Structure formats: structure tokens, C-alpha cells
Amino acid sequence: MIKKLTMFFACLFLSTGLALAQMTVNGIVVSEGDNEPVVGAAIQVVGTQTGTVTDVDGRFSLTMPSGRNVLRISYVGMEPLEVSARPNMRIVLTSDQKSLDEVIVVAFGTQKRSSFTGSAAVVGSEELSQKITTNVADALVGAVPGLQIRGSSGQPGAAQGSIHIRGIASMYADT
């Protein structure tokens, strides 16, 4: 019984020591240009899988493991940044001036526009907003070459039916 009690206290003291070695870091992430909060910025402890994202106010809170004190902050369109961790941080991300290459989503992944050899069409929100329709699929009629939409019935709110790209009689029409 004495051995079990000694083992229990030893484990208790060791776990308390480990819990006290951790540090909680909190702060806010803002953009440099307009000083607005960055929503959804990824914050990760360098060298670990521990991380979090900022909330709608750009705020975050993270418990860091012992021995680690460097944070990596990244966000799409912003330069990634590595900073030393401390309580009540204010992190300012600068805009990434590199222009993003156009990416096309295809059935088997994504490709850069420069390496895509097929036919592609871009329908912007301006074109879609000019159409009077009850769903987005009907708004694509006439805007995308080779797109055919067949309704299942003429009733408002009925099931969509079928959508075919490059015609019903194409080689892979059923896939």
C-alpha cells in the first residue's frame, strides 16, 4: 500500500510540473494596411503540431508546450511571419505583393491556367446577378458554352434534373 501511495504522489508531482511548464499565449493579429483584424489566420508553434486560428475579432489563445517559444503566423495573401511568443501579443501581417496565378479546378485536382489544355469558362458574380432565376444552375444557362441543363419538370422548386457539359452525345456523357 505504501508503494502505491508513493507512486501516486510521484505521478501527481510530475504531472503538476509538466502542467506548470506550459505557457498560455494570447493576442491579436491585424493587417498592416488598414489595421483591421485578420479573421482565420493560422498560428502554429514552430516544431510542433500545436496551433489555432484567429476568431472574428482577430484574437487567439494558445497553450504552448515547454521549451518552445516561436510562433509561425500565416494567412492567404499575407507574408508569413515568425515571432517569439509572449502574453498579450499584437502581430501585424504585411500584404504579399506577389500576384496569385490563376488556378482551375478540374475533376482530378487543380492545374495552373498556363498548363491547362482544355476549354474553360469563367462566370463572374456580375453576370450571375443580372439573371432573374431561383437557383444558380439556371443562371449558368447561356453563360457557359457547351453546358446543357434539362429540368425534370416545369414546376417551380422541383428537382434540378440533369446537367451535361459538352452535350449529351459526347464520348463520356454518362460519367
Q: What keyword list fits this structure?
A:
four-stranded antiparallel sheet, Immunoglobulin-like, 175 residues, alpha+beta, three-stranded mixed sheet, 3 helices, 11 strands, elongated
What features would you describe in this structure?
The protein is α+β, with helices and mostly antiparallel strands and about 180 residues long. Among the domains are: about 70 residues, Carboxypeptidase-like, regulatory domain (Immunoglobulin-like, Sandwich); about 45 residues, no CATH class. Helices cover about 15% and strands about 30% of the residues. The protein contains three helices and eleven strands; from the N terminus they run H-E-E-E-E-E-E-E-E-E-H-H-E-E. The strands form four sheets. It has a four-stranded antiparallel β-sheet with strand order 3-2-5-6, with no helix packed on it. The longest helix is centred in the first third of the chain and has 20 residues. The model has no long low-confidence stretch (mean pLDDT about 75).
Can you lay out the helices and strands and say which pair or pack?
Elements: H1 2-21, E1 23-31, E2 42-45, E3 51-53, E4 59-64, E5 70-74, E6 81-84, E7 89-93, E8 103-106, E9 109-112, H2 125-129, H3 136-139, E10 147-150, E11 162-165
Parallel strand pairs: 1-7
Antiparallel strand pairs: 1-4, 2-3, 2-5, 5-6, 8-9, 10-11
